[in-house]
Design a protein that fits this description.
The chain has helices at 20-34, 43-64, 100-110, 116-119, 135-160, 165-182, 184-201, 214-230, 265-273, 275-295, 312-331, 374-383, 385-413, 426-438, 440-447, and strands at residues 12-15, 74-79, 88-93, 124-127, 205-208, 242-246, 250-251, 257-260, 300-302, 348-352, 359-360, 366-369, 417-420, 451-455, 459-460, 465-469. It is α/β, with parallel strands linked by helices and 473 residues long. The strands form 5 sheets. It has a 4-stranded mixed beta sheet, with helices on one face. A 4-stranded mixed beta sheet has the order 9-10-12-11. Strand 11 and strand 12 (366-369) form a beta hairpin.
């Protein structure tokens, strides 16, 4: 883990401090929600959690040593089990406690994690000999956790030690091609399963998120095929529809029928039975979007290509929530600042789930959580109009340059595919492609026949995909 804890043994009557093992056990579910390694695709959230964990570690270590230490309010992004990837909850924990027990309880409570384990640990104990405290076992557990942290740190440092893309590609391109060939049979099975589903039930298309392991996709398609055979009378509901295997179960904003890969088949069947009812929300969306646009001076209501996946019904709820907030803003006699143009039809706004940030995206769109009060949203728009204008203009130019450069890189290198992570903007992708083209004399033969995925790190996926950081050296 990221935290190191000291173990203290005291002879006689004592106010019992939690041992290292107890702290580690108590905070385990917390670590599983905030651990930086779980936020690999989200560098900003990863960095915040990493810094907060270091401060929390220092505070606990000081309290174990009976020292006073003040720390600022610690922000943590929590992964949400039942929410789409990239949808995080931000909690801010104020730790003014004087001992480890109180600190641990405050951390768990702030994250809505049960404190039953800590509550059952006695607050005081009387011991006549330090041997009555299982010091050896506690130390072994601590040492094991510390060793894991050390190994993890070593792996991270090893990744960071990569000095240039040429060395890395020479070391890994053959391995990637070998893995690609090893998964050829699985990919062919996936293709056959999809073709059979489409032909048998009149399904328009079956697609899946590229982030899933191909063997997981095959397993999900086999489960869907088995379910379809058993409940074929309901499969007519999917005729002419697009099926997407992803990270939630529901009808998307585009009308695609999403099936969560990790859901049980009963969840899928429940959706397929009532899919026409879910479609009702799709017909309501344009009305809500027009209503929101009209009260925000004709601003365009848009959807990001890679916005967090939500069902059509959820999206309608988000729009209603924001419309109500803005309506209350006007109802209380408040007005849009005079500095804002009479028409905002040159600008775009995206309404996302409640846990999202209020921001201007790298492509110039205003991104707002549905829970954002109008008192915050409207001044934010007024303040950032110039920034949005600049970014929108830049994006409109960059997206065409990006498309041309990606095509050139793919053709000149002879790549099978060239993809990028959702977080890589056209501007970043342009820089990456330009650097790749300057190294073609050294990398062309090694990369020919490979699949490249541009992201923030180096890695070789099990299907043989080469992941490279956009800002490689």
């Amino acid at each position: 883990m990221y935290c190191r804890f000291k173990i203290r043994c005291v002879v006689g009557m004592l106010s019992r401090s939690l041992s290292s093992a107890e702290v580690s056990t108590a905070l385990r579910p917390f670590y599983f929600s905030v651990h930086p390694d779980l936020f690999g695709k989200y560098p900003e959230q990863r960095k915040i959690n990493e810094n907060s964990l270091q401060l929390l570690s220092a505070l606990i270590e000081a309290q174990q040593s009976s020292k006073n230490m003040a720390v600022p309010v610690l922000p943590f992004y929590l992964r949400q089990k039942d929410m789409p990837d990239g949808n995080f909850k931000l909690v801010k924990i104020h730790l003014n406690s004087k001992n480890v027990r109180e600190t641990v309880v405050k951390v768990l409570s702030a994250c809505n994690i049960s404190t039953n384990y800590v509550d059952k640990i006695p607050r005081s104990s009387s011991v006549s000999d330090s041997s009555k405290i299982d010091f050896t076992r506690a130390y072994e557990e601590y040492n094991r956790d510390f060793q894991k942290a050390t190994d993890m740190k070593r792996k991270v440092e090893k990744k960071r030690a990569i000095t240039n893309i040429i060395d890395w590609v020479y070391e890994n391109s053959d391995d990637a091609k070998e893995k690609y060939e090893m998964t050829r049979a699985t990919r062919n099975q996936v293709k056959t399963l999809i073709e059979n589903l489409c032909k048998t039930y009149g399904i328009k298309e079956v697609k899946y998120d590229s982030g899933w392991n191909i063997s997981h996709i095959r397993g999900a398609l086999q489960s869907l095929t088995a379910m379809a055979s058993q409940y074929s009378k309901y499969m007519g509901n999917l005729k002419g529809r697009t099926i997407a295997l992803g990270q939630f179960t529901g009808v998307s904003l585009d009308g695609d029928v999403f099936l969560n890969i990790i859901d049980v088949r009963n969840e899928w069947l429940s959706l397929i039975k009532k899919v026409s009812q879910e479609d009702t929300a799709l017909t309501e969306i344009p009305h809500y979007e027009r209503a929101l646009s009209s009260i925000l001076r004709d601003i365009h209501i848009c959807r990001r290509k890679f916005m967090p996946k939500v069902s059509a019904a959820q999206y309608c709820s988000h729009l209603r929530q924001l419309i109500t907030s803005i309506g209350d803003f006007y109802g209380n006699g408040k007005k849009i600042p005079e500095s804002v143009p009479e028409s905002l039809n040159k600008y775009e706004i995206v309404v996302e789930p409640e846990a999202g940030p209020l921001m201007v995206s790298p492509t110039g769109q205003f991104i707002t959580p549905s829970s954002c009060p109008a008192d915050e949203l409207i001044p934010f728009i007024a303040k950032h109009l110039d920034e949005a204008t600049l970014l929108l203009t830049e994006y409109s130019i960059n997206k065409h340059i990006e498309k041309a450069l990606c095509k050139e890189v793919k053709e000149r290198y002879g790549l099978l595919e060239l993809h990028k992570d959702d977080s890589i903007t056209p501007g970043l992708m342009i820089l990456c492609c330009q650097r790749l083209l300057t190294r073609i004399d050294k990398l062309e033969m090694k990369l020919r026949g490979n699949i490249i995925y541009v992201t923030h790190y180096y890695s070789v996926l099990t299907e043989g995909v080469l992941c490279i950081p956009w800002n490689f050296k």
